[in-house]
Amino acid sequence: ELAKSDPSPVVRLYLASALQRTPKARVWDMAAGLLSHAGDADDHNIPKMVWFGVEPLVPENPLQAMEVASNSRIPLVSQFIARRATSGKLLEAVVDSLAASTSSALSKVILEGMRDGLLGQRDLTAPANWSSLESELLKNADMKNLTLQVGQLFGSAEAGRIQLVELNDPATPVERRQEILRTFAQTIFPPAVESILGYVEDPDLRLDALRTLASYEERGIPETILRHYSEYTADEKMAALQTLATRRDWGRTLLNALRRGAVPRSDVSAVTARQMRRVVGPNFVDWWGPMESLEKDKQLAIDRYKFLLTDDYLSNADLTKGKAVYAAVCASCHKMYGEGGEIGPDITGSNRADLDYILTNTIDPNGEVAESYQLVTITTQDGRTYAGNVYSEDDQRVTLRLVGQDMIIAKPEILSRQTSPLSMMPEGLLNTLSDSQVRDLISYLRITHPIK
Q1: Rounded to whole angstroms, how far apart are CA atoms 193 and 212?
Q2: Which pTM was predicted?
Q3: Cα separation of 45 and 357, whole Å?
Q4: Which of 35, 92, 168, 169 has a CA-to-CA distance to 180 between 20 and 30 Å?
Q5: Distance separating alpha carbons of residues 351 and 349, to the nearest angstrom
C-alpha cells in the first residue's frame, strides 16, 4: 500500500531497496506500485533500485514481468525488463506485450529493450508472433528504424537491404547513417562491406566505418584503412589501429606500416600494442621492445619528477596547455569534471592534490589495478581479437569496453579469453612529454574546479 500511495520519495526509495529482501510472491505487486509514480522516472536511485529488485525474477515469470513493464510509468525499468526478457530468450512474451501496447512511447521503450537484448546474439530465429507485428511497426515513422534494427538482428535480409539503401542515400541524415553503420558492425551484413569501405573516405562517416570494418573479413580492408591514414583525426587514427589489430594478417600489415614509418610508433597505444603482441606474436615484440618497465626504473622516474616539480616550478604552469595535454593523452579513457571517456576510473574525486599520488598512478599504473579495470583480451572463433575491460556480462554475451566504443561478443563465439593483471593505462606515459608539458599536465590534474 505504501508503494502505491506514499507521497514521500524517501519512503519509496526504502521500499525499492527492500525489494531484494522481500518474499518473491510480493515483489511484483510492490514493484508495480513503485513503478506507478511517473515523478520518480528522473530520480537518480529509485528506478535502479526497483530494477535490482525485480531483475532476478524476470526469467522466472516473463509474462508477469512484461505486464508490469507495460503498466510502468518509469520508462527505464520497462526498457530493462524487456531487455532482460529478450536476452533470456523469452521473446514471445516481449513481442506479445509490444503487440498489446496502445502507447507509442511505451512501445518504443519496449522495442529498444528488445533490440538491446538481441545485440550480440547470433543465429537468431524470430518468434512466430513477430512477422505480423513487424509489418505494422514499419508503418510508424517513429518505430521504423528500431524495427529494421531488430529485424536485421533476426537475420532478415530485407531489413538489411532497406538499411543499406538508406545508408547509401545522401539525403539520409548523417546521424541515421552513422547508426546504420553501427548496426552493421553488430549484425555483419556482407552485402554492405563495399559501401562501408567507401565511407572510409567520407569525413562524416569515417570513424564509424573504421570501427565497423573490424567485424568483416574482406580483401583490401587494411590497405583501404591505411591509404589516407595521415589525414585522419586522432580519434580516427585510434579506431583505425584498433581495427587493424583485430586480425593476424591485418596486424602484420600494420607492423609493416610501422616499420616503414607510414604509421608513427607514437600513435600506437599500450592497449593496441598488447593486442598486437597477441595477434602478431614475437615479430611485433622484437620490433616494439619490452612493454613493462623495471621496478627500479619506475622508482627512479618518480624520484626525478618529485625533484623537478617543486612548488616554484609548478607555479609557472600554463593550465590551458595542461588541459590540452590532458585531452591528448588522458581524456580518451578518463573522465574529469564530467568530460572524457569511461575506460578508466573517473578521476574527479581522486586524491589529485597529492603529487605522490599522481606520480605513482601515472608512472606505475599496474601497481594496484581494480578487477573491473584489468585488461581482458578476447579472441573469437573467426579470428578477431579485442582488448579492453569488461563493461557488462551475462550468460550469453560479454560487452567489452574499448577506447571509444563498446563491442558485444556472444559467448559461443569466444575462442579464448585472457585476463591480465595489467591496467589498460600505458606505462611510460610521461616519457613522451617534455618537462614543461609534464609540469602543465600535473598542474592541470591538481585543479579543484573545471576550467574553460
Answers
A1: 9
A2: 0.77
A3: 32
A4: 92
A5: 7
